[in-house]
Design brief:
This protein is of the alpha/beta class and about 250 residues long. About 35% of the residues lie in helices and about 25% in strands.
Length: about 250
């Protein structure tokens, strides 16, 4: 499929007719979602709606039953090495190797991306997140918030075209959360990447996201464009929350 829809639009993530699940239990049913480079898309939905299953399919951790996933125009099924080269996936903190230090984790992830060293901007972000003093601590001695920071830092290595995050702000203190939000927003605004974030945090939708998609019972039930979100922000302080509640009740 084509890289673009017009000369300046690059599709970072293209999901078509995706069906996936576990054993005999189907979770995702005909999911279609496209996210452009330069967009932050918030993936919303109640617990067990299919958000994490979708992210695991995009991250290559779960093979879908049917459908297409393209990352920066690379098909994840037929060309996984090149597709994953463009992917920055922040794993769950409990999946980090506990017997490595934070620095060793970053070095391993950097090597997997073919990098000779850890990205300078990732080290700068680590410092802004006050993670630098923890670089040489073993992962299994770190708090949830510290491991969450490390998982995100690993996912940002190699300037990926698509950054995928699952509740990445859980466990972060407010100052660190703000630093990370601003860093991601800057990457997106510069056109360096797209962000797909599964979250329950409507503050992110209110202040940082360009688009939002609501998943219910394994299907994309509703999408809000940048213009939709702008109108909701202008309508009232509870406009986005009210719209989400109404869409969830349909």
């Amino acid at each position: 499929m084509s890289d673009s829809q017009g000369s300046d639009t690059i599709i970072a993530l293209n999901v078509q007719s995706l069906r996936a699940g576990y054993a005999r239990h189907t979770v995702l049913k005909d999911v279609n979602l496209a996210v452009q480079r330069g967009e932050w898309c918030a993936l919303l939905g109640p617990n067990a709606s299919g958000k994490t299953t979708l992210l695991h399919c995009v991250g290559g951790m779960l093979a879908p039953d049917t459908g297409v996933i393209e990352i920066c125009s690379r098909d994840l099924r037929s060309d996984p090495p090149h597709a994953k080269q463009q992917l920055g996936f922040a794993c769950a903190p409990d999946r980090l190797p506990g017997l490595l230090t934070g620095r060793q984790c970053l070095e391993v992830y950097a090597a997997a991306k073919g990098l000779a060293s850890i990205d300078a901007d990732v080290l700068q972000l680590a410092d802004a997140l006050r993670f630098t003093p923890m670089l040489d601590m073993f992962v299994d001695t770190c708090s949830l918030g510290t491991r969450q920071k490390l998982a995100v830092l690993c996912g940002l290595l190699g300037s990926p075209g698509l950054i995928v995050l699952d509740e990445a702000f859980n466990g972060l203190d407010p100052a660190s959360a703000l630093v990370l939000k601003k860093h991601l927003r800057a990457r997106v605004s510069e056109g360096r990447c797209a962000v797909l974030l599964a979250t329950h945090d409507l503050d992110i939708v209110e202040h940082y996201a360009d688009r939002a998609a609501l998943i219910l019972n394994g299907r994309i039930a509703h999408e809000w464009s940048k213009e939709n979100l702008s109108a909701l922000r202008a309508s009232s302080w509870e406009g986005i929350e009210a719209a989400l509640a109404a869409a969830s009740a349909e």
